[in-house]
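User: I'm putting together notes for a lab meeting next week and I want to include a structural view of one of the chains we've been expressing. I don't have a solved structure, so I'd like a prediction I can at least talk through. The sequence is below, exactly as it appears in our construct file.
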Amino acid sequence: MGHSLQLTWCPSLLGYDFGFGHPMSPVRLDLTMSLVRALGLFDVPGVQVVDAHPAPDTELLTVHSQEYVDAVRRASTTGRPDLAHGLGTEDDPVFAGMHDAAARIVSGSVAGARAVWSGEVAHAVNITGGMHHAMPAAASGFCIYNDAAVAIRRLLADGAERVAYVDIDAHHGDGVERVFWDDPRVVTISIHESGRSLFPGTGHATDTGGPGAEGTAVNLALPAGTGDAGWLRAVEAVVAPVVRGFGADVVVSQHGCDAHASDPLTNLAVSIDAQRRVAEIVHELAHEVADGRWLALGGGGYALLDVVPRAWSHLIAVAAHAPIAPDAEVPAEWLADVATRWGRSAPDRMTDGADAAFREFRDGYDPADDVDRAIRATRAAVFPHLGLDPHHD
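Assistant: Thanks for the context. Below is the predicted structure for the 393-residue chain, given as structure tokens.
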């Protein structure tokens, strides 16, 4: 194994741009990778930075219909909406070059999956990926092509027998779940804000998978306002035992950082410190159950300056086996660049000052606590299907 981490990045990935005023601005990617560079993570031994080119249709068609791929390509050229395929909506406006931009993201995730599965690298990260809402025949929720699903399909085609997909974005990972709803080889685990208060309105505890794949769709819908203690408790109570019980060959994770308290589109109250801790948990699980095979993707995250760069820099650092201390200073040159380009200050530490402490679910269930009730509902719905005891790990 020549490298420990394959990191997908090239300026062309900034071309996924829905235009001025759209929440998913490529600025967040630019800021993140400039912070990663300033932190010295590009120079960590074993880190390989790779380019990405648009994925061919043969790869896209493992998840998406030919009609849809043709529609995206046509809209990219003509600029005309195609509402039947979700193109030209407020969430997913049409832009020139959209097909190539979205297909490039897919290519980065697929290349990471192949490098991890082949043993070329231990881990791979594509922060531009994690487009988990895209459906086989329609765009949805800022997502054109579902790179996570295509990467998982590639892993299965290359010989993986069991893939664990872990999604910590504040929004339900509905597109990935839809693709693998009937596939017992893939467990999709989504820890998200309840659909009662947030798009896409799905992902209930009782949604557990199709015939023959019962228990492989795992949904934990958290109440609005859930903070670090509840969020981490939920991850510990559901993600870890499911990944262990499922016995995955490889772990694919989506690290949308929009669960943060500062995110303008969601209603959770999670800190940078808790998000860093979950990156560590997923990393540890990959080494425990999958011989280290781990593909980590980005996702949502709309606090462009204050949250996204720090959260994903921590993710990359964990994957590079070069974790950054939570109380580390943000490099002065990065702060100066932000001040020059955006006329405002950014946080000067890699922490929110939270202790990311939580009480493990096994230490006692509180029936008066909304988070505990959500955890219990999910465990009751899926654990028996996976041969797990919902009352004990």
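A couple of points you could mention at the meeting. The CA atoms of residues 252 and 295 lie 5 Å apart. The chain has one domain: 3-386.

User: Perfect, that's what I needed.
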